[in-house]
Structure formats: structure tokens, C-alpha cells
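tool_call: predict_structure(chain=1)
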Amino acid sequence: MQPFAHILLTWFAENGRELPWRQTKDPYAIWLSEVIMQQTRITQGWTYWERFMQHFPTVDDLAAATEDEVLRLWQGLGYYSRARNLHAAAKQVVQQGHFPNTLEGIRQLKGVGDYTAAAIASIAFDIPAAVVDGNVYRVLARYFGIDTPINSTVGKKQFAILAQQLLPEKNASAYNQAIMDFGAIQCTPVSPKCLICPFLGSCEALRQGKVGLLPVKIKSLKVKTINLSYVYIRYQKETAIRRRHAGELWQGLWDLPLMADMPEQIRGKATLWRKGIKHVLTHRIILADFYLLTATERPSLPDDFIWIREDQLDDYGKSRLIERLLDSLD
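tool_result:
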């Protein structure tokens, strides 16, 4: 075993996080944790993982659920395509008759990329496949002093090859979990614990004074600002919602009418309730105004809207923005 892997595993034995999905080899439970933890803090994701395992203890249970049930349980986690892909992949597994137990088979599941496939394969089936995520990029870039941009084609290939070379074949599960924990706990993006690091004497970034400069990432993301005006309608204790269409932001979740959906003759009757609520997503900043309309007759809306009792709103999966808007209502 290489010195890097040996030191990392020694650190992990003493400092690794105790997480419930690490107490099992059930590929379903492990896969569920990996999907939930993408773009999610451990403390928040832990609660959602337990909730899903309670409602859907097996992949068959998840596959048999409706999309509404899955999205409602996912509500608040964001990146809702993950929930839709999770549901679709569960159906794939059921159709196959078992959870795939090869790296390529796992990769064929809907929404599963290289990182998730490697994590499931190594942790559930002890397959020697190295994980490469943000934590791994950071640890390797700093330790080896690599300044190749991690989001470049050359960088992705370079780090993938290096990660696989460092992986001890007979201890892939522990090693992959160790390097992820090391990046999350020790070699953090900001204020890494360099002075008590087991690699204190061998880290190139520390030696060269480049810890804060690595890893390098090409900045190409353009954030778009979107302005929306929502209307909450109250008509005889009912309100109108619609399911967002395929390809739309928050696809599959339920939404309130926009001002543009309202008949022109009654737009002026809506009262401004909240103005300029800022909701930040990865690629977008949404500024939402929220209007309240107490109607004496049911407004005519596009055909994709349905009318429900106001006390039924919790039964429908909604985006976090809509949740925030509804929370401000009396």
C-alpha cells in the first residue's frame, strides 16, 4: 500500500464520521445516501435519508411510489431532478430483478454518474473504483501541488487517473470514504487544519504556500436573474396550482399562478403581499413578488391548473421558493 493511502486510512480509523448508511452493505441504502448527499450538508441529508428509508425501506417500495409521493418527501432538498432520477432508477432496478453489482451496471442507472457509481460499487460491493468529487479534487490538488483546472478536460482525466492509481484494491471501500471525509473534515475549502494534518510534512501546497490557491477551477458560470410575479388565489377556501411541465425549472413540482396567467380584467384586484423575495439557485437568482387575490368568483385559468382546498397544499410537492411564499401567508 502506498504511503499516502496508509496515512489516510490511519487518519480515517480515528476520525471518520459515523453515518448510518456506513453500517450496512445494502446497495439501496448506500445509493440513496449518495444521491441525497449531492449538493447537501450531512446534517440536512441525514434527516432526509432516514425519512426515505422509513417511507420506502426497499427499492421495490420506492419504485411502487408515485412521483408526487417522492417529490413531496424530497421537498426542501432542491435539485429536484435528483428525486425524479432516483424514482426512475428504482424502477430500473425492479425491472432487472436485483440491484446491479458491477460498475458498468450501476452506471446505467438513471442519474448515476461516474462518482456515484464508483462510490456505490466500492462501498457496497468492494469493487476497486476510485471516487472523484470536490473533496477528492481538493485533497489531491493540494497534496501533490497540481494546478491543472479541475473542470477542464485535461484536469478531469489527470485526477481520475491519479485517484485510481492511489486506490488500494483490497480496501477500496474504506479508502474512498476516508478521502471524502478527509476533504470534508480536515482539508476543507476554507481554513483547512494544516497544522494538525497527518500530511504536514509532505503536502506540496503547504510547502509552496498555495493551500488557498488550490484546486484551480475555470470560472465560466453565468448567473441569470429572473423576475417572477406569483398570485395566490383564495376562492371559497380553495386555491389554484399547476404541475410544472417537463423541461421547466422545478419540473414535476406544483406551482402557483403567475400574474401573466391571470385574466387581464382582474389583475388589478390582486394585492401586493411580499415584494422582491430573493431565492438563489446555482445558475439563477430569482426575485419574486407575491400577490394575494381574494376572489368573489373563480377566475378562468389555463387548463393545466387545478383547484384544491387550501388545507390540502401540504399534500403537493412544491419548490422551496413556493414554500417560502406560502409561509408568509396568514
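agent: Residues 81-96 form the longest helix (16 residues). Proceeding to next step.
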